[in-house]
Amino acid sequence: MEMKPEDLDIIKLLGEGAAGTVRKVLHKPTGLIMAKKTIGTDPNPKVQRQILRELSFQKTCNSSYIVSFYGAFLEDGDTTLSLCMEYCEAGSLEDIYKRARDLGGVIGEPVLGRIAESVCKGLVYLHSQRVIHRDIKPSNILVTRKGEIKLCDFGVSGELINSIAKTFTGTKYYMAPERIQGAPYAVQSDIWSLGLTLIEVSQNRPALPPPGQPQLSIIELLDLIVRQPVPVIQGSHISKECRNFVAVCLIKNPRDRPGPGRMLDHPFIRKWEDVPMDLAGWIKEVWNWK
Ligand code: ATP
Ligand code: MG
């Protein structure tokens, strides 16, 4: 089905990022609730057509570890690009860990195990479609009402990546050392970002910069990622399998860092993959849903 701006009613604002704004919307013809992300776009019609063409590929993505994509269109006199995707009721892992922090809790290891497994399976799927995510971080991992964990905001459109990069001012905390040193993106770079994500979600604060040195310039931060010892996941509730998984994610040399397929064989994933977990119940508790 073709997505059209006039078919959508805005319900509420969900969040704002460096490049876009996300709103909860109703798609009137189908009655489906969706999330609509709007991004300011390159004014060149050729570039715009290329972006829309590249994005249309995402409609064919079909995995329970990937946020479904319904379609994209230009609006506001072709000044903004809107992307319509599956609405994930429980929000992002960033929303969830901040909520856990406000409630005085932390996300425990079993859930971390499920997050690691879901992200690796999502990355394996994307890789099978020749897509590298490029922006793994807690705000780009979403959770549904059922407790499913899914990836969003991945790099399907090279043209869109370029046009956002021109104006990009966001964080670079999650960038792998090889990227800082100018090497091309590879699946292993996403695994580095997964390591930092697991630390952040488990400790209720970003893994970098390390606590105690908050005011780093961007150059100092990039130097830290390339040259200083990597952060470790801490806490007496964390098993040695989990600690090792994160340490493997954060191997600095990309040639020694496994891709998502091999990470799925790690003892940390094995430890939790067959343990039944009521993630829907967990989410209900986190958001205090009836
Ligand atoms: P950045 O722009 O730095 O990457 P971000 O990922 O938080 O940050 P957006 O991708 O614009 O920025 O998303 C903003 C917020 O909107 C997210 O943090 C999340 O809370 C919410 N959000 C995004 N997509 C969805 C979705 N499909 N369903 C539900 N909530 C969503
Ligand atoms: Mg995002």
Automatic annotation (TrEMBL):
Residues 8-269 form the Protein kinase domain. GO terms for biological process: MAPK cascade. The keyword Nucleotide-binding applies. Keywords: ATP-binding, Kinase, Nucleotide-binding, Serine/threonine-protein kinase, Transferase. GO terms for molecular function: ATP binding; protein serine/threonine kinase activity. The keyword Kinase applies. Belongs to the protein kinase superfamily. STE Ser/Thr protein kinase family. MAP kinase kinase subfamily. This is Kinase-like domain-containing protein.
